[in-house]
Protein: 3-carboxy-cis,cis-muconate cycloisomerase
Organism: Halomonas elongata
Amino acid sequence: MPDALIQHPFMSQSGLAASRDEDFVRAMLAFELALAETQEAEGAIPADVSRRMRACLESHDFDPSAIAEGVASGGNAAIPFVKAGRAVLPDDLKPYWHLGATSQDVVDSALMILLMPRLERLDALLARCRRAALPLMEAHARTPMVGRTLMQQALPITFGVKVAHWALGLEQSRRRLATLAEPGLPVQFGGAVGCIPAGRLWGSPSWTASPSVWTSRRRCCHGIPTVSPSMLCRRPSMARPGPPRSWRWTCR
């Protein structure tokens, strides 16, 4: 799980700083603890389990390099992370750790947790660029320049028109981003075969029900990289059958 897997060469410095291995590990932990809290609230696990689990794991110093070494054997970072977390817990809590979840639930949801704070910064960047384009567009409304088609010189245009197209694209991207961010990014939880064996969990105040998981149907999040190429979105993986549910992170 090297940093390069969750970083992009065109990300901002703040984005790079928030996409380290340590951040990904903490995001996986946030998913697991939220899952335990929700299961406890729904009566799927005994009372006080989630609090004790949080007390054990939030202060634990996970070793990202050891987790990274375990990726080769399991194919993802969640498997060695879950194993490391279970080793820290007392025996009576071990059965409730990662209950009903599968590794893709952890990895996908952790990536969404990392992206959540980036959306606000991206919105601010798009708005700033659009504002900068408007006076430039007006100042060069009559400034002629070469128009091109297929990289060849064509009819003349004005630089103001070119900037206007930039500004329009920036605003369209900003509005698309808002439609993705407003309902909250999706939490993946389908279980090993996509049918949520852990039972009904949609009563959580932090998660709201969505009609299907997105292990193989990525429409709920695939628009993020089209808004900005520097945003990260995982590629689709193996499809999972069944009539599952997923949730969205609505807490900010």
